Every structure is written in structure tokens, then in C-alpha cells.
Amino acid sequence: MGVVTGEAAVIEVVSDVVCPWCFIGKRRVEKALALLKRKDVRVHWKAFELNPDAPKEGMQRAAYRAQKFGSLAYAQQLEAHVVAAGAEDGIGFRFDRIERVPNTFDAHRLIWLAGREGIQDGMVENLFRAYFIDAEDVGKPEVLQRIAVQSGLHSGRVEEFLAGDSGRSEVLEDERHARAQGVNGVPTFLVNGQPVMSGAQKPDLLASLLAPVLGQCSLEGGACVSPAAINLRPAAGS
């Protein structure tokens, strides 16, 4: 396979901590990069709040989802589909245990900080696991503090960070930029700043879409394409 030389390619994933398909998308992009044998590609997580107007204390989840989807029964049908999809990728979703939909702004601030410290992937993984598997409220400062320390940040620094507003403007800029690019759902995948596709597609499909824009042979047809020759456009969401 041909590989672009020079500066490493970056896959940006526009995501929210309370998006189950984003957790699945994390697993699938990891599998896609393994299929492509691309250990040189960096994955960077960008903020997108699905509920930007959520109160600081979050919302009661059952009532919120019943209102959003018309009924709790229908919301549970959708969750069953996600549970089945997650099981294929080794994720044991526990929607039955989750009581609240948190405000995720501070979680995104921590993801930004973790990116500066080179531990962003671990932070994202731990936040997903805390919410979707351990049913923790990732809007609470004490929960975020513990997860941040678990992910490798110093306790005192995290406490000071959460008490201040560092990262606020960067998170807001991430969201503004994503919407300016037409992102209205997550996960959305970008390569070197350009949208490639939306939705947690299967690893083989994701790999086939990423291969040309990462500058190597596609999985289908054997054609090798330079990134400069690709006209990037978002794919249909899942």
C-alpha cells in the first residue's frame, strides 16, 4: 500500500460523550485503521453537544427520551438496536442503569485538556465507559475529577481546571466550526480537516472510505489515490 510521507495524517472525530454511536464509532475507526495497517494515523476528538441547552445538573433520562422519541417504549426499541450493534464491537451498553442525561460541556473541556497532554484517547474511552457501562453521571465535577485522574491527569490540576473556564472558548469554537461545515449529527469523521463521512459505519466500509484520503490503495479495485486528487464530501449517516 502506498502511504503519504511527511506529516502524519489526522482523523478528527466530531463526537459527544452521551452519543452511543460515537462509542461504537470509536471501536470501528480503531478496527478500520487496523485493517489499513495505519499505526501512524492520529485520531483527534472534537466537541459537539447533542444537548447544548441542557441544564448544568442534567436531565432525568427516561422523561427526556420519552419526550424526544414520542414514547419511552419506542426509545427502548432504539436502544435495543444500539445494544445489539455495541455487542458486535465488544461494548456492553447498560442503558437500563442510566438515570440522567448530563450536561457534557465540562467533559468536552477535559477532552480538550487531555488532547494537549497527549492522553485524549484514554480520556474519551474512560468517559464513554463511565456513562454507558457504569451508568455514572459524567456531568458531575467529582465524577469528572476521578475519570481525569484515572486517565493520567494530576488531581490538583484537574480540580483547578474544572473550577475555572480554560478550554471553554476552544470547545465552543469546535462546535461552531463543526456546524459551519454542515455537521448536524455525530459521529462525523474528518481527515485533515475535511469531512469524509457521518455515522458509525462498519469497519470495512469505514476503511474503504478512509484509505484514499489517507493516501493509500483502496480496499476495492486496487487503485491508489493521492489525497490531493480527492474531492472530499460527507457520506450518508447511519
Task: Walk me through this protein's architecture.
- By secondary structure, the protein is an alpha+beta fold.
- The chain has one domain: Glutaredoxin.
- It is 47% helix and 11% strand.
- It has helices at 20-35, 61-69, 72-88, 105-117, 120-132, 141-150, 155-163, 168-180, 203-213; strands at 10-15, 42-47, 59-60, 100-101, 188-191, 194-198.
- It has a 4-stranded mixed sheet. A two-stranded antiparallel ribbon has the order 3-4.
- α1 links the parallel β1 (10-15) and β2.
- α2 packs across α3 (72-88).
- The two termini are 28 Å apart.
How would you describe this structure in keywords?
single chain, 238 residues, alpha+beta, Glutaredoxin, 6 strands, 11% strand, disordered C terminus
Strand order of the largest sheet: 2-1-5-6
CATH classification, class level: Alpha Beta
Q: What would you call the structural class? A: alpha+beta
What low-confidence regions span 5 or more consecutive residues with pLDDT below 50?
1-6, 217-238
Q: How many alpha or pi helices?
A: 9
Sheet of most strands: 4 strands, mixed
The name of the CATH architecture is 3-Layer(aba) Sandwich
The CATH superfamily is known as Glutaredoxin
Q: Name the helicity range.
A: 40-55%
Counted beta strands: 6
